[in-house]
Hints:
Layout (H helix, E strand, L loop, with lengths): L26 E2 L11 H8 L14 H11 L6 E4 L2 H12 L6 E4 L5 H8 L4 E4 L18 E5 L11 H9 L6 E4 L20 E6 L12 E5 L1 H11 L9 H11 L2 H24 L3 E2 L6 E5 L5 H10 L2 E2 L11 E5 L3 H14 L1
Helix pairs in contact: 1-7, 2-7, 3-4, 3-6, 8-10
The structure holds pyridoxal-5'-phosphate.
Pyridoxal-5'-phosphate (PLP) binds next to helix 3.
Amino acid sequence: MSRYFSRNYASLVPYTPGEQPQNRQYIKLNTNESPFPPSENAIRAAAEELDKLMLYSDPECKLLRQAYAELIGVKPENLVAVNGSDEVLNFAFMAFCDATHPAIFPDITYGFYPVYAEANHIPYEEIPLDENYRIRLADYCGANKTIFIANPNAPTGIALTHAECEEIIRTNPDSIVVIDEAYVDFGGESCVDLIGKYDNLFITQTFSKSRSMAGARLGFGIACEALINDINTLRYSTNPYNVNRMTMAAGIGAIRDEAAIRANCAAVAETREWTKAELERLGFACTESRANFLFACHPQLDGKRLYEQLKERGVLIRHFDKERIRNYNRITIGSKEQMQILIDKIGELL
Ligand SMILES: *Cc1c(COP(=O)(O)O)cnc(C)c1O
């Protein structure tokens, strides 16, 4: 830390992104990226923007919001487009939390939530998942605090049902419930249909995982118009051009390729179930994941050691050095071929 760094952030511990090694070709099963390329439409549309880069992008993201609103069955007024859903999650902490509305979220969830709370000086509480890494509904119903739930959760992959989410939303009429649907397309139940019904519901979605666009940085906040306006107050106070021209065009292109994207998600879900069965055959225990990753541990293998041994053999998975989950690893679902290699290498280790 330099002597000039603001005292406001002196104790801030930043989020640690998954490794993106540039030195050697790994089989990358560590950051939940898609094994499929982006849609042809997305690639072509982004390329066509290159000669317009002297012009700013549309701060309203009008065409993109229209296209996505139509796809998911909401109005464009219910959407804000963002530079990856991480950006709108940070805005949600800024917009909907303060001393009277502290944030709550599970102790085992997306590692960015506590970082956003710390960075914005927001009080927060981490609510322990039960012994099976499940959310206890009673901890959130009527909590009257700003709730952040990833559904399906990460890194466990476990999902709440639509009815369970609605129960949390319904019993917290005076506080915001943020549902992070980063992984919903791989087998979760979306709450988007509840947007017209509850003014305290705020959903985030991303094109990073199911739409193979992690490098483009595109996400959405989805909520009633009043909440979207709150987010826009913050967005226009920081960076109104947060979604660049190439990404905006690529996003519209990807929306036009919905059938191909659905097929990709189905393939990932199928490979996930195949991989889970193979891991269980090798003695692993896996949570019931509805996401594009598995969360697995083995009674005879130390979690960190497994991560290190696979890395030496050219396969990257994600280990979290965190008390309750130290023996687990999060394994992204890649192509069937990549998962076969993973299974073979683990078989050798055993
Ligand atoms: C990947 C992820 C996100 C955000 O990803 P972006 O690339 O910023 O859209 C949000 N929440 C969870 C739980 C994630 O795993």
